[in-house]
Specification:
This protein has one domain: Metal-dependent hydrolases (TIM Barrel, Alpha-Beta Barrel), CATH 3.20.20.140. It has nine helices and eight strands. It is globular, with a radius of gyration of 17 Å. The mean pLDDT is about 95.
């Protein structure tokens, strides 16, 4: 069985409270030997780090403030993230970025919080785990200012356009693909674009408990996604690019381990 890396899973989400340990066991039984737990706020990032510390070499964490939560940031936010990042389990800064779709936080505050986290990642020489929704132009504008200092960056849950993909690849960014590609309603364009992503720039993620793959023959009754379902995403990618499953598995795992220095 080829080992897989799920680069983005929200294992601290309340939907996993009852069976978190079993969820992790099921993932590993399916070959998902490494999972990176996403941090989206100070509290959530701390929980992600604590969870990862219980599974050394198997679980890792990111530390960051999602744009939705940036309204809660203050003068101590970056200092707390900096301290959290000293833990060996923390392998990236994020999830950070811009979300001009829901605007849960005012845009100027999103911009400021995002830029502060980019600067922190540059300071610590850690990669960035990025979120962007309906904010591509401003997103790229801010990142370009720091391009020469950014160690590496992955655009998490990419669902954008051909031109947006080109812009990211031109900036030497990596691309994270989720179960969105398994959605016959919304993911059709992604099945076409996946061929334009070099294998050494592609990584896979479930974003569980969200975005349950719609190509599953037997979907969970509660609709909850989990990292064990990463195989369905990988299968859809292999089908879309016309390459063997194992080839995509080995390539994405190799890329993820190099990117996060695992």
């Amino acid at each position: 069985m080829v080992e897989l890396v799920d680069i983005g899973v929200n294992l601290t989400h309340r939907s996993f409270n009852v069976d978190q340990e079993k969820v992790i066991e099921r993932a590993m039984a399916k070959g998902v030997s490494t999972m990176i737990v996403t941090g989206t706020s100070i509290r959530n990032s701390q929980e992600a780090q604590r969870l990862a510390s219980r599974y050394p070499g198997k679980l890792y964490a990111t530390a960051g403030v999602h744009p939705h939560d940036s309204r809660n940031s203050n003068n101590e936010t970056i200092n707390i993230l900096r301290k959290l990042a000293t833990n060996k389990e923390v392998v990236a800064i994020g999830e950070c970025g811009l979300d001009y779709n829901r605007d849960f936080s005012p845009r100027p505050i999103q911009d400021k919080c995002f830029e502060a986290q980019i600067e922190l990642a540059c300071e610590l020489a850690l990669p960035l785990f990025l979120h962007e929704r309906d904010a591509h132009r401003r997103f790229v504008e801010i990142l370009a200012t720091h391009k020469n200092k950014i160690k590496a960056a992955v655009v998490h849950c990419f669902t954008g356009t051909d031109q947006e993909l080109k812009n990211y690849l031109d900036m030497d960014f990596y691309i994270g693909v989720t179960g969105w590609i398994c959605d016959e309603r919304r993911g059709k364009h992604l099945k076409d674009l996946i061929n334009k992503i070099p294998l050494d720039r592609l990584m896979i993620e479930t974003d569980a408990p969200f975005l349950t793959p719609r190509n599953m023959p037997n979907k969970p009754s509660d609709g909850r996604n989990e990292p064990a379902f990463l195989t369905y995403i990988l299968g859809e990618i292999a089908k879309s690019v016309g390459k063997p499953y194992d080839e995509i598995a080995i390539a994405t795992t190799t890329t993820a381990k190099k990117f996060f220095n695992l």
